Amino acid sequence: MKSTFALYLKISLLLFASLTSLAQTQPFKWPKGARTAISLTFDDARGSNATKGAPLLDEYEVKGTFYVVPSAVKGQLEGWKKVVAKGHEIGNHSLNHSCSGNFVWSRNSALENYTIEKMRAELLEANKQIEALLGVKAESYAYPCGQTFVGRGKNTQSFVPVIADLFASGRTWLDEAPVDPGYCDMAQLTGIEMDGKDFEQILPIIEEARKNGQWLVLAGHETNDSGYQTTRLATLRKLCAYAKDPANGIWIAPVSEVAKYVKAERKRLGLVE
Questions:
Q1: 189 - beta bridge partners?
Q2: Is residue 37 a contact partner of residue 250, using CB atoms and an 8 Å limit?
Q3: Predicted pLDDT of residue 272
């Protein structure tokens, strides 16, 4: 009797493992038969985003996600109001763009000198200022420099839980893999750099994401013809044209829109939250 039960248990465990493995390898189902999702994101509220980047996206009826620092928005407020009016997403990129003090320019607002309480307070203040300036509530967040900690040494803490509490998603930076929609932590979406790249350099990343049914969150800064931390306009134009061609099986949408779909689909499938 014991041996029969043991055999039954072993078969059940093998079956469960097999089904779990199958579920993990099946491509995520995207809307309208798409085989991958792409979100175009831009950090800092750079001036060229409002004057060149967003208008280029408008030509292709593509909506991007712009993670802004309120002080930068104030310097070009009318331009950013136009970006909002065209339906682009405005996300939070912190109040002071605080990064590690290892970046000398961030020494006066170094993450090593922050506490969780101070970070939460500044994020809420940034949300308040963004809403006052542009009339929208930020649902998405991007970590400045991709850094997710406060404090130093034994007192270091992750503020990812704060982002998970205040926002529907958080995006990191300089990552090496697209987002796995069925598994990812929504507070730590991987962001892959598109600055300084030709479209031909980005295309293999798109193809790999499409093969695996992943979500590709591309991240940039300036939107211009050339320069440091710049997503080239020529690259952006080719990328939009490629993504909008139905034959390529791409759903291109802002981060918040894709995040809502992913959460609903994961709930429907009973996947990890």
A1: 171
A2: yes
A3: 75
Among 69, 77, 123, 122, smallest CA distance to 97 is for 69
C-alpha 159/C-alpha 116 separation (Å) is 6
Superfamily of structural domain 36-269: Glycoside hydrolase/deacetylase (3.20.20.370)
**Sequence-separated (6 or more) residues with CB below 8 Å from residue 34:** 249, 250, 251
* Nearest-angstrom CA–CA distance, 67 and 99: 15
Q: At 43, phi and psi to the nearest 5?
A: -105, 150
Rounded to two decimals, the pTM is 0.90
CB 217 within 8 A of CB 181: no
What pLDDT does residue 244 have?
Answer: 98
Across residues 86-102, what is the average pLDDT?
98
CA atoms within 13 A on the CB side of 140: 28
Q: Parse the chain into domains and list their residue ranges.
A: 36-269
The H helix count followed by the E strand count for the chain is 10, 12
Tokens of 225: 């013809």
How does pLDDT run across 35-46, given as a tens digit for each residue? 999 999 999 999
Distance CA 257, CA 235 (A): 23
Answer whether residue 10 shows pLDDT above 90: no
